Amino acid sequence: MDIKIIKNEKEYQVALARLELLFDAKIGSLESDEADVLALVIDDYESKYYPIEAPDPIEAIKIRMKEMHLKQTDLIGVIGGKSRVSEVLNRKKKLTIDMVRKLTNRLNLSPELLIHDYKLN
């Protein structure tokens, strides 16, 4: 096992190809250990050169609603009345701290994700 920090795109592609070969290695084997270390090195490179930004709060809510098979009406009482839910999800009104607290519990989303600023329509 000769793994080094990935410094460029070519090394990244080689590392991905190697990881693909090792992907189904038996747990506890040398190949499995190599795959684990290689995955960490790849993750480090990807976080630097291919960062994935978190969705804005409203998109995060909509994504979680879809995952949980929820409708806007399911958020009545969490965000407010029917019209307030619509206003928030259509970016006409901003989330309040109280809404963030309730959404955190109802949708199991992190408060850090929900407190980010976003644009209104």
TrEMBL record:
Database matches in SUPFAM superfamilies: lambda repressor-like DNA-binding domains
Name the InterPro entries on file.
Antitox_HigA, Cro/C1-type_HTH, Lambda_DNA-bd_dom_sf
State the Gene3D superfamilies in the record: lambda repressor-like DNA-binding domains
Write down the superkingdom of origin.
Answer: Bacteria
HTH cro/C1-type domain span? 61-114
Protein name as catalogued: Transcriptional regulator
